[in-house]
Amino acid sequence: MLNLTPRDYQQTIFETSKNDNTLVVLPTGVGKTLIALMLTIERQKKFPGEKTLILAPTKPLVEQHLESFKKELPELFAQLDLFTGATPAKQRKKLWQTSDIVFSTPQCIANDLRKELYNLKEVSLLVIDEAHRCIKNYDYTKVAKRYLSQSQHPRILGLTASPGSESKKIKQICTHLNIRKIESRTRESEDVKPYLHNLDFEKIELPFPKEFIEIQVLLKRIYDSKIDQLKKRSLLFGPVNKITLLKVQSKLAIQASQRNGNAMAGMSLTAQAIKISHASELLETQTLSGLRNYLKKLIKEAEQKKSKGVQQLVKKPEFNAAFLSLTHLLAQKIEHPKIEELSVLVQEEFKENKNAKLIIFTQFRDTAKTILDRLSNIEGINAETFVGQTKKGNMGLSQKEQKKIIQEFRESKINVLIATSIGEEGLDIPEVSAVYFYEPIPSAIRKIQRAGRTARLAPGKLFILVTKNTRDEAYYYASIAKEKRMNKILEKVKGELAKSPKTLREFI
Known about the structure:
The chain is an alpha/beta fold. The chain has helices spanning 8-19, 32-46, 59-72, 89-98, 106-114, 139-150, 167-176, 213-232, 242-256, 261-285, 288-303, 308-315, 317-331, 337-352, 365-375, 399-410, 444-451, 471-499, and strands spanning 22-25, 51-55, 80-83, 101-104, 123-129, 156-160, 181-184, 199-206, 358-361, 383-386, 416-419, 434-437, 460-467.
């Protein structure tokens, strides 16, 4: 088969996927794409004249898959085509007739199928990258449903670094893709281990600064008062966190639409509690400058009378006292201790290896900017932020700009990438010497994707910064527990599928 030399685990997974619809769960960067390529070749040979459809959630990811295939396949092996919204619908309809391997986003294909530009009868392989997204009514699900009903020789290959840690979601993915086999590996799997390098991990714990406590107490007072009011109105019961508040908000929205006065008041209280919870998270785990930007945004919304809830919030004496205290700290050039600790860690890395390439992950764009401002003052460091596209008036990067940054990182013109969640999923970011989590994240999927950026081709390091006695600690332990749970659930679902694939039908 061409000049491909698969690793043992890739060959094993390929053999499984030849015979059954398979969900492949492999760490980032250990060769899921090669399995897709091998299976594409096998299906093209088995069903000459039929097509392969390869889907990925974003245009840069789709283009990345196309480039990978072009690199490996002989020039005349097959007609490879990219389908995006930039290609007119008439042209896509025409191209479909001559294409052998189509690379696209699920949105584009779902729209074309809805308009009946073509059907999937002659598609003998559907590859779904980032298959953990194949839940609920996402476009992946719509395309897969059509495919299973239209294809004369259906075969599905789902690829992901992590399908999540909830049994119901994993079963839903398997049902939507009609999965019959699961092939999962971790960094510790016996057949994967020999191909990966050592990953040194260090958890960096930092005390929550005494100077921040006054602001924390003031925000908590506002938060507690909103929660008490919700409980007095019998709209909230038991322990409360951000997730329970969001669930209550969804329920109240339905009741409020029927002009229920108690629900309408509850909606406002819930929205205020969520905003203050977010402010507390920024204080505890992010940056003071990010918190100031957020509170300023709320003050501006109140001035513009966007909502009565926000107007009530900013009138609170505690809110104004917190804002004054925050302004005073920033005037003294005081920032979250993580910023300074991170700059020290980065400098140490470059002392050890002047050719190092580093990636820093953070949740928020404001934090990314603060990190960039701090690192830009250090000689020898050429840092850049890597964020998603513009949204809601925030500054963002176009896909063209994102590509340019990754290319400059590859060429070492940039040696530190400060990325939000866009850097986690799939994108072909080069191997890095070390990965830094500015904050722990409670998601197993995102933790696995972040950590998978290092220790593939060379030994790597992983640092996670944790502010003690804050939600950082809860998030840190939550992601570890979820990852363990995910691996147990995968084994359980694998066993259920082996006994009877029909057991998962209830999740359609």
